[in-house]
Amino acid sequence: MQRKVLVTGAAGFIGAFLVKRLLEATDDDIVGLDSMNSYYDPGIKQARLDMLVDADAQGRFAFVKGDIADAALVERLFAENGFDVVVNLAAQAGVRYSIENPRAYVESNLVGFFNILEACRHHPIGHLVYASSSSVYGGNEKVPFSEEDKVDSPVSLYAATKKSNELMANAYSKLYSIPATGLRFFTVYGPMGRPDMAYFDFTRKLLRGESIKIFNMGDCKRDFTYVDDIVEGVARVMANPPAVRTGKDGLPLAAHRVYNIGNSNPESLLDFVDTLQRVLVEESVLPEGFDFEAHKELVPMQPGDVAVTYADTSALERDTGFVPSTPLEDGLRAFAKWYKGYYG
After folding, report:
1. Is 15 helix (H, G, I), strand (E, B) or coil?
2. Annotated catalytic residue: which of 39, 158, 189, 339?
3. How far apart are CA 310 and CA 302, in angstroms?
4. Is 339 in the active site?
5. pTM of the prediction?
6. Residue 218 DSSP code
7. Is the pLDDT of residue 307 over 80?
8. 79, 121, 316, 337: least CB-packed within 10 angstroms?
9. Would the pLDDT of 104 be above 70?
């Protein structure tokens, strides 16, 4: 069935690959919204849009440059298009940057998401899918992280805004019968990724001959999830909205749920760095015989960070039949090949 879909953050890492998949595998008409801000190199965002132009053989993708914090723009887009599905991926990302520039997170992640919810309220849709984050689990010590775990102790403002999104979506879902699904993404990586992510930043620094800092003295684990796995999970969730039901009091229940999307295979940062350096050499991004040991620096944990992320994805598998499974080496190799081609 052909749908009218809004994807916010369409020039972002996950957003662009989601739009590409929808163009290639569905008949959806897609409106993409993105502010194209300079949080990181806008050239990469433009390259992602160029990728979408190449994939849009039938003219089903329309791009709008704008910010979800602009309430009038969001209202106009909803009024003019009559969306069936909305995927809100626009957000100010990054844990460390939230310590330096907290206002950006309030504007995008709270005010912007409120504008999306208000538009869904006034222009009813079939399903709102939105990005949450594994950061909501904070310093939880029980692993793997389950959607049923208590998540009331965020360790960064970024995490607090993402938890707030889940609460806001739940309230709007109950009050206005909006089917909504939040997705807690776990450390997304791959080609055309965000330059502030560790694998990208490490590569850039090694090429400059600089040292890379490995936090918590290397005693960290991350559930690295390849971007194609994330996109497959999002696409399957889009087609599977929660049902709107009525409670015993005669009022609608919240048609809201949350899923983890992660690889369920946490890697130690030291093993991750070893794999990254090997594929960078094998793909000729770095020269043979590069002295990695001379460029590693073990440092203490930084504010806002956590020691372990580890996703329990049994709920996602139960409801969609999908389990992320791309091996870390395969994903890092795809990144290395892209990096060489993009930067030469």
Report:
1. helix
2. 158
3. 19
4. no
5. 0.96
6. G
7. no
8. 79
9. yes
